[in-house]
Specification:
Elements (H helix, E strand, L loop, with lengths): L3 H14 L3 H12 L4 H7 L6 H40 L18 H15 L3 E2 L5 E3 H4 L31 E3 L4 H11 L3 E10 L10 E11 L4 H16 L6 E8 L2 E14 L2 E4 L4 E11 L1 H6 L8 E8 H9 L12 H7 L16
Parallel strand pairs: 1-4
Antiparallel strand pairs: 2-3, 4-5, 5-10, 6-7, 7-8, 7-9, 9-10
């Protein structure tokens, strides 16, 4: 087959003189593309006799391999050259001082969670956690909440979607962190002292409620626990959390399905010069719910109610943050406004500690 040496020299020269990858691609297509010169010559082999086809095929394959190798080598060289140019222009002096950056801040909700943990850890409580998507049994049945209770209706609770014919128990976005108490008792038994902070979800959407908020619930189970222990625990918590020398709490009879007896807890306060003062004054403000754990709840968690008893309480973390740090609007907690976060946020290095002060 004539002219192969001339063809090779022409394409090797074109490859060597290609200035960029686009020009190199044009050379490749002209030589090895579907309609390239070498590809067309390969097709002509079918019209030759067997002896000629074998000899010409070997020459064409050698030429194709040589051109392909030259193309690859040139592409690598062009890439290396382009990288060298970038390294020359895009350099960075790592010895220069860093740019000044405003440090991040801890969200008030996270801060209050840490404060709660520090206070109750000092009383011997550990932190328990659980899933935010709960079964109907953990969220309602195990807590002695009857089927006709309003909280089990769709206007109050977020139910997870189920396909038609799905016979599995319904699941909900937990409406409180009380299911964590059930899980903790089932796992650890009694005696037990835990708090369960976390996100909860309810169909409350107005200026004073959000569909997702934060709660912290506490549980203490032992053989001789009484309402007196509950009162002391809550008084000590409020005194430490609000960082005041003394507090006064008022217990009002109430009803919760999972406690008996049940009590709403109010704290004495006053407003002086537009500032909220906890522990003094002639006003009362509700801050949490509490009571002695119902025997049916203990039994559902595998704890013998004839041998063990205890108390439970629950409080809104968002509201506690508003009360202590003078935050006027609940909606601001979830707006991700950097100005708000810088004003109300906390230094990540100031870890709450009872000895050094909760909110430095």
């Amino acid at each position: 087959m004539d002219g192969l040496d001339t063809l090779k020299a022409r394409y090797l020269g074109a490859i060597a003189s290609a200035a960029d990858e686009a020009g190199l691609e044009d050379v490749r297509v002209a030589a090895l593309g579907k309609k390239g010169e070498i590809s067309l010559k390969m097709r002509d082999l079918g019209q030759m006799d067997p002896a000629g086809r074998q000899a010409a095929g070997a020459l064409l394959n050698a030429l194709k391999d040589e051109i392909d190798a030259a193309l690859r080598a040139k592409k690598t060289a062009l890439g290396d050259a382009a990288l060298d140019e970038r390294l020359k222009s895009e350099w960075l002096d790592v010895t220069l001082p860093g740019r000044p950056r405003r440090p991040g801040t801890v969200h008030p909700v996270s801060q209050v969670m840490e404060e709660l943990t520090a206070i109750f850890a000092d009383m011997g409580f550990s932190v328990a956690e659980g899933p935010q998507v709960e079964s109907d049994w953990y969220n309602f049945d195990a807590l002695n909440i009857p089927p006709e209770h309003p909280s089990r209706q769709e206007h109050d609770t977020f139910f997870m979607h189920r396909d038609p014919g799905d016979d599995r128990p319904p699941h909900v976005l937990r409406t409180h962190t009380s299911p964590v108490q059930i899980r903790a008792m089932m796992q650890e038994g009694a005696p037990i002292r835990v708090i369960a902070p976390g996100r909860v979800y309810r169909m409350d959407m107005d200026q004073t409620h959000t569909p997702m908020f934060h709660q912290a619930e506490g549980l203490a189970i032992d053989r001789d626990i009484s309402m007196a222990n509950l009162k002391w625990t809550l008084e000590e918590f409020c005194r430490a959390y609000f960082e005041v020398p003394s507090v006064e709490l008022r217990f009002r009879a109430s009803h919760f399905p999972f406690t008996e007896p049940s009590a709403e807890v109010d704290i004495r306060y006053s407003i002086v010069g537009g500032q909220l003062r906890i522990g003094e004054g002639d006003r009362w403000m509700e801050i949490l719910g509490s009571g002695m754990v119902h025997p049916k709840v203990l039994a559902a968690a595998g704890v013998d109610p004839d041998q063990w008893q205890g108390f439970a309480f629950g409080m809104g973390i968002d509201r506690l943050a508003m009360l202590k740090y003078g935050i006027p609007d609940l909606r601001a907690f979830f707006e991700s406004d950097l100005r708000w976060l810088r004003h109300y946020g906390f230094s990540p290095l100031d870890v709450p500690d009872l000895a050094g002060g909760l909110s430095l």
